């Protein structure tokens, strides 16, 4: 027997809970993206071209996969500032394995990803075991990873050659395998987030960790796993980068973490945890990258690029608060 | 009035036997008892306590000497004493002395002549003759309210000094700095103690009081009314500490007559916590302890002295009063101006 | 400024409020100075909405109000407060890390060129607290260190600093001990004497009858009663609120009480839980009562593994077998469920849907190879919604939007699916309206009938006496006594609740000549 409630008539369309993003958010992001593309196309004759977009697509896979990992980290209410350094660490590990120990391409790649995953697990484990904010722990790991990267490569860029060129060689429509892999990672990640038990637990942990614990689920292994995953994806991003630069640069990824976080936030994942979407993160990555490419094409100087990018981030966050205020008002 | 002899005669039983029936001192046969009871009913006989007391050497009476039982304070005190006595089978002879030395001495003599078992004295006067006569009293005695010099007896009283300190401190906490005091007659011990407490609190807070803001009157409402009028027509204080609740009522009336709102423009605090202080408008904040309980305590102490005479030294029970927060005190008028 | 008694201070006429749907409709009433108006009704009936309209937190969709004869439409809470219309909410508006003084004057700290004048702040704070008789508290105490009763007094003191003509209390006694309730009532009486119009929102009918002169009952957003309170008995009030009769005695059906299913032996944790041993049998509803702070919640948390015990053992099952419970995960595996006291903070994921909340903890059963079966999840949610009569739009509605009673049902629904043998309930009906309360009692009875062992902690003695087979009393961390049905009385239970503290209180007493009567 269903009793008719007071404020909502029976059969009203569900106001979905704030966890998952509705069509509205995606349309909004797509609209912003479109607007930017139109703007730059008008400002620069070269912008609206096949070359622009294919180059873009081949430049962003690292950012894409890193942003996926960061989305998960943000969803559980944490943050990982070490991703850039872990990327460099992975790259330098690969270079050591290939150049120093004569390993094959695949084993070296796996080692690189494993080391990166280990770094992530370290961050996760320390955060969880001693209940220290991940912000601080990842800051420490950032330094350690960077240091190790320099150690491994003797502070020099190591030229690896075309061992990993496969990733960046365009296959169809000028799109590289890296981009396709990254796209698959995104789709897989979104499915995991929305359809699996693991994804549910993550969202629960980000919403109210104590409630999850008292429901009989131990949140700790999941948290560590998320950071490990972040590390693993940083390792993957390192491979993409090596394939593009044909070298392992210990300075790689410096400052990359902020770009990653910016992309995730612009996409609309909440810094507070409990709400997020990988698809919208993808839009965030696109927006940031299109912005950078467009500004470069119209001849903006480096400083100008940074100022404008920064401004976009601030605007995105402000808009996001309006959105979450609307969500919470409905609550 | 019928006597035992008359009952005996009517019942046809001896005097001694009737006495045994009345006092249950020796078992008698049912037949005899019924005859005696019938005779009692017929003659409307009431046993003589006097006669009995002569035999028992105790009158089961307490003498209570108060200045004026119309004063609500002494009325409540007397009530407390009387309730405790009644529960224990004693009755109370109430005497109003009006603080008249002659009357006091005369009552004292009368009470002693009546062979009271104990005496409770609440006196405000300082008459040295009275003190001397009291000092000579051998009957168990309890003094209430204040020490009497030279008189070695149990004492039950409120800590006047501390109570006044609390009252003044309350006003200081509310932010008042311009506090006036209207006390009872300056020569009385109670008044002096309360004034001392008032000054102590001010000294601690390093607040001074103008000379014209310390007044004395008798412990009555008319007295308080006149003194308050003087204060309120001159340089007005923001708070008045009334030496007792009766004075406080007079202050409230003076304020009302001048359209001064209490506690909005003037705070008033009393002392004693008599029952009336609840029912004036606004209800009077005061300091005190249950007056009835004070009386009961005094009576209990006296009764224990009577029933178990001990050679212990005289006891002094000083009761700590507490603030009874009602509606007549408030923060200094301009204190929260920025917040209104 | 002075107010004559019974002057109408605030009048509302045709007040209504709609969000997506109407929540309040056509409410007219008058608040009089010196009168305590009880405002009651089931959850969702519109009480908080009405109080928000009056205190300026929301604006009405229809109708209007007047304050002391002038039109009254505050645009914000501070506007209302400036006029003297204030509210003391259930979640006190105090900042626990700041001192009493700072909290009292937070919106206007006395300062000179930006630096806080601490001396003046102390002075003002002392005066404000002396006004309500709180002068014993040091104004520099952090508010978080005070008991909830005193915190509430601080909140009241804060509201009295400016003008206060109308004061609304929203469920003020939910977290208070009996003694603190008395303190509150004294304050309310003083406020009343001062001519303040007081609105007292509460479910606790006995309290309303003690403190209020008039009563207003809301039902489904409409005003169904506005009368002097003596005209109604508690039962009649419940009738008005719910629109149907609710018995004082409920027939919980006959249950078989079997062998012990849970055995707790000498459980200890610091001085919160001291050497507690008890047994709960299958089919039994075992109540635990005691004062706040007696260790009831702590005991349940120990049994559930949410906290680690210092010593003691646990046995579960038929026959009893020892188990080590060192985490909620282990407890759940052993078949124990805990429905926590703080459902919002510890039980629910407020921003998520009903179905997500019910599914949490059951996801293993609702998924295949790690992928959640959306249909199964939906089916489960609907099953529970129907079984427990959860009032909601549908299963996808966010749990944060539901009323307290329905939220509690969601939590219970989650656990029911797991088929645990031992269920621990901590204040299961707190903050829940009368109708939903009885729904939950029915649920408890049904669970017991199924042969489960239920432990219910509650601060409502009448509730425990209504539903339990046995009641244990905790006092200062110790289990003082266990009473059987039919062999208990409210006085005995209360006496036992205080027993643990008497020794402590006796030590605090001054022996000597001063008599504090």
Structure description:
The complex is a heterotrimer of chains A (331), B (340) and C (517). By secondary structure, chain A is mainly alpha-helical. Helices cover 72% and strands 1% of the residues of chain A. Chain A contains 13 helices and two strands. Chain A has helices spanning 23-43, 50-59, 61-75, 83-100, 105-130, 134-153, 165-168, 177-195, 197-214, 219-245, 256-267, 278-297, 302-330; strands at residues 158-159, 247-248. In chain A, helix 1 (23-43) packs parallel to helix 12 and helix 5 (105-130) runs antiparallel to helix 10 (219-245). Chain A is globular. Chain B is elongated, with a radius of gyration of 26 Å. In chain B, helix 1 crosses helix 3 (30-43), helix 5 (72-87) packs across helix 12 and helix 8 (160-173) packs parallel to helix 9. With 340 residues, chain B is an alpha/beta fold. Chain C is α/β, with parallel strands linked by helices. Chain C is 34% helix and 26% strand. Chain C is built from 17 helices and 24 strands. In chain C, the strands form six sheets. In chain C, strands 6-9-10-3-11-12 form a six-stranded mixed sheet, with helices on both faces. In chain C, a hairpin with a 2-residue loop joins strand 19 (367-368) and strand 20 (371-372). In chain C, helix 5 (148-159) runs parallel beside helix 6 (178-193). The two termini of chain C are 39 Å apart. The chains are: A mainly alpha (331), B alpha/beta (340), C alpha/beta (517). Chains in contact: A-C, B-C.
Question: How is the topology of this model organized?
Answer:
The complex is a heterotrimer of chains A (331), B (340) and C (517).
Chain A lengths: L22 H21 L6 H10 L1 H15 L7 H18 L4 H26 L3 H20 L4 E2 L5 H4 L8 H19 L1 H18 L4 H27 L1 E2 L7 H12 L10 H20 L4 H29 L1
Chain B lengths: L3 H8 L3 H9 L6 H14 L5 H8 L4 E6 L5 H16 L3 E6 L4 H13 L4 E4 L6 H8 L5 E4 L9 E5 L1 H14 L5 E5 L5 H16 L9 E3 L4 H13 L5 E4 L2 H13 L9 E3 L16 E3 L2 H17 L8 E4 L2 E3 L16
Parallel strand pairs in B: 1-2, 1-3, 3-4, 4-5, 5-11, 6-7, 6-8, 8-9
Antiparallel strand pairs in B: 10-12
Helix pairs in contact in B: 1-2, 1-3, 5-12, 6-7, 8-9, 10-11
Chain C lengths: L7 E11 L3 E11 L3 E6 L5 H9 L6 E6 L2 E3 L4 H7 L1 E4 L11 H5 L6 E2 L2 E2 L1 H14 L16 H12 L6 E5 L7 H16 L3 E5 L3 H7 L2 E6 L2 E7 L5 H9 L17 E10 L3 E9 L3 E5 L6 H9 L6 E6 L4 E3 L4 H7 L1 E4 L3 H5 L6 H6 L7 E2 L2 E2 L1 H15 L15 H13 L5 E5 L7 H16 L3 E5 L3 H7 L2 E6 L2 E7 L5 H19 L9
Parallel strand pairs in C: 3-10, 3-11, 6-9, 9-10, 15-22, 15-23, 18-21, 21-22
Antiparallel strand pairs in C: 1-2, 1-4, 4-5, 7-8, 11-12, 13-14, 13-16, 16-17, 19-20, 23-24
Helix pairs in contact in C: 5-6, 13-14
């Amino acid at each position: 027997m269903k009793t008719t409630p007071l404020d909502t008539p029976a059969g009203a369309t569900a106001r979905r809970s704030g966890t998952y993003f509705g069509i509205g958010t995606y349309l909004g992001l797509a609209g912003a993206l479109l607007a930017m593309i139109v703007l730059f196309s008008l400002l620069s004759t070269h912008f609206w071209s096949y070359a622009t977009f294919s180059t873009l697509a081949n430049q962003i896979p690292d950012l894409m996969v890193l942003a996926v990992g960061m989305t998960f980290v943000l969803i559980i209410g944490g943050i990982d500032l070490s991703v850039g350094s872990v990327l460099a660490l992975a790259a330098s590990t690969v270079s050591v394995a290939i150049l120093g120990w004569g390993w094959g391409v695949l084993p070296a790649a796996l080692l690189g990803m494993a080391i990166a995953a280990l770094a992530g697990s370290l961050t996760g484990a320390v955060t969880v075991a001693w209940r220290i904010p991940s912000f601080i722990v990842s800051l420490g790991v950032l330094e350690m990873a960077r240091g190790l990267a320099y150690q491994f490569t003797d502070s020099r860029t190591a030229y690896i050659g075309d061992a990993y060129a496969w990733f960046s060689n365009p296959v169809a429509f000028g799109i590289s395998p890296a981009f396709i892999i990254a796209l698959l990672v995104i789709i897989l990640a979104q499915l995991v987030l929305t359809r699996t038990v693991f994804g549910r637990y993550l969202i629960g942990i980000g919403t109210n960790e104590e409630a999850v614990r008292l429901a009989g689920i131990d949140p700790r292994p999941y948290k560590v796993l998320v950071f490990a995953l972040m590390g693993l994806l940083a390792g993957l991003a390192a491979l993409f980068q090596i394939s593009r630069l044909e070298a392992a640069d210990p300075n790689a990824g410096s400052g990359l973490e902020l770009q990653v976080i910016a992309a995730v936030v612009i996409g609309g994942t909440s810094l507070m945890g409990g709400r997020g979407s990988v698809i919208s993160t993808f839009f965030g990555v696109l927006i940031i990258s299109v912005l950078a490419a467009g500004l470069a094409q119209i001849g903006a100087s480096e400083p100008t690029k940074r100022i404008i990018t920064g401004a976009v981030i601030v605007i995105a966050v402000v808009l996001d608060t309006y959105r979450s205020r609307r969500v919470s008002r409905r609550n | 009035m019928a006597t035992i002899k008359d009952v005996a005669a009517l019942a046809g039983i001896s005097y001694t036997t009737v006495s045994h029936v009345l006092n249950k001192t020796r078992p008698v046969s049912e037949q005899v008892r019924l005859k005696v009871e019938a005779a009692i009913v017929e003659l409307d006989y009431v046993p003589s306590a006097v006669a009995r007391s002569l035999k028992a050497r105790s009158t089961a009476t307490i003498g209570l000497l108060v200045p004026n039982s119309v004063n609500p304070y002494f009325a409540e005190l007397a009530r407390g004493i009387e309730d405790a006595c009644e529960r224990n089978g004693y009755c109370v002879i109430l005497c109003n002395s009006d603080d008249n030395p002659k009357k006091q001495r005369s009552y004292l003599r009368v009470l002693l002549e009546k062979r009271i078992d104990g005496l409770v004295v609440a006196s405000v006067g300082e008459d040295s003759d009275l003190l001397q006569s009291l000092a000579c009293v051998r009957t168990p005695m309890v003094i209430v309210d204040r020490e009497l010099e030279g008189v070695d007896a149990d004492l039950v009283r409120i800590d006047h000094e501390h109570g006044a300190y609390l009252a003044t401190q309350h006003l200081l906490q509310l932010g008042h700095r311009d506090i006036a005091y209207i006390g009872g007659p300056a020569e009385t011990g109670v008044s002096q103690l309360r004034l001392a407490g008032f000054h102590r609190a001010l000294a601690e807070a390093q607040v001074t009081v103008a000379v014209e803001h310390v007044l004395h009157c008798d412990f009555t409402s008319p007295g308080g009314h006149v003194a308050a009028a003087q204060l309120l027509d001159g340089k007005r204080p923001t708070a008045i500490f009334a030496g007792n609740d009766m004075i406080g009522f007079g202050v409230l009336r003076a304020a009302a007559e001048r359209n001064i709102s209490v506690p909005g423009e003037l705070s008033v605090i009393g002392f004693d916590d008599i029952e009336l202080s609840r029912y004036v408008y606004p209800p009077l904040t005061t300091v005190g302890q249950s007056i009835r309980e004070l009386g009961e305590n005094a009576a209990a102490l006296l009764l224990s002295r009577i029933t178990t005479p001990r050679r212990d030294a005289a006891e002094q029970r000083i009761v700590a009063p507490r603030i009874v927060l009602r509606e007549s005190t408030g923060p200094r008028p301009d204190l929260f101006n920025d917040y209104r | 400024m002075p107010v004559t008694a019974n002057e109408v201070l605030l009048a509302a006429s045709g007040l209504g409020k709609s969000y997506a749907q109407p929540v309040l409709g056509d409410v007219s009433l008058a608040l009089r100075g010196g009168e305590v108006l009880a405002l009651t009704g089931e959850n969702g009936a519109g009480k908080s909405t009405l109080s928000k309209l009056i205190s300026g937190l929301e604006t009405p969709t229809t109708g209007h109000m007047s304050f002391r004869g002038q039109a009254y439409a505050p645009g914000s809470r501070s506007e209302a407060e400036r006029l003297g219309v204030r509210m003391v909410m259930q979640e006190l508006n105090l900042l626990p890390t700041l001192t009493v003084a700072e909290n009292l004057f937070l919106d206007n700290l006395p300062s000179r060129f930006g630096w806080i004048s601490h001396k003046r702040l102390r002075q003002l704070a002392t005066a404000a607290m002396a006004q309500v008789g709180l002068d014993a508290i040091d104004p520099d105490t952090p508010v978080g260190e005070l008991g909830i009763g005193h915190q509430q007094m601080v909140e009241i003191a804060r509201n009295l600093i400016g003008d206060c003509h109308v004061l609304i209390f929203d469920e003020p006694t939910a977290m208070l001990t009996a003694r603190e309730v008395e303190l509150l009532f004294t304050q309310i009486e003083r406020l009343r004497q001062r001519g303040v119009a007081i609105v007292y929102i509460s479910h606790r009918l006995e309290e309303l009858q003690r403190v209020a002169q008039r009563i207003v009952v809301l039902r489904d957003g409409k005003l169904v009663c506005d009368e002097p309170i003596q005209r109604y008995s508690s039962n009649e009030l419940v009738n008005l609120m719910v629109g149907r009769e609710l018995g004082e005695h409920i027939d919980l059906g006959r249950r078989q009480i079997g062998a012990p299913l849970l055995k707790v032996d000498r459980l200890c944790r610091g001085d919160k839980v001291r050497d507690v041993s008890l047994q709960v049998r299958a089919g039994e509803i075992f109540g635990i009562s005691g004062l706040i702070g007696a260790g009831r919640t702590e005991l349940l948390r120990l049994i559930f593994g949410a906290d680690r015990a210092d010593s003691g053992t646990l046995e579960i099952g038929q026959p009893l077998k020892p188990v080590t419970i060192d985490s909620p995960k282990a407890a759940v595996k052993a078949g124990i469920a805990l429905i926590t006291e703080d459902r919002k903070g510890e039980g629910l994921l407020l921003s998520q849907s009903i179905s997500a909340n019910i599914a949490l903890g059951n996801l293993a059963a609702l998924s295949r190879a790690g992928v959640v079966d959306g249909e199964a999840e939906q089916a489960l949610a609907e099953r529970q919604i129907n079984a427990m009569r959860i009032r909601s739009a549908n299963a996808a509605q966010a749990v944060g939007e539901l009323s307290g009673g329905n939220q509690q049902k969601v939590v219970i629904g989650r656990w029911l699916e797991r088929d645990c043998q031992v269920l621990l309930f901590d204040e299961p009906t707190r903050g829940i309206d009368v109708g939903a309360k009885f729904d939950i009692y029915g649920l408890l009875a049904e669970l017991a009938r199924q042969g489960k062992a239920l432990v219910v902690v509650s601060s409502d003695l009448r509730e425990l006496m209504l539903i339990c087979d046995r009641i244990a009393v905790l006092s200062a961390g110790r289990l003082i006594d266990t009473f059987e049905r039919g062999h208990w009385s409210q006085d005995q239970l209360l006496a036992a609740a205080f027993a643990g503290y008497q020794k402590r209180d006796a030590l605090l007493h001054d022996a000597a000549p001063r008599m504090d009567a």
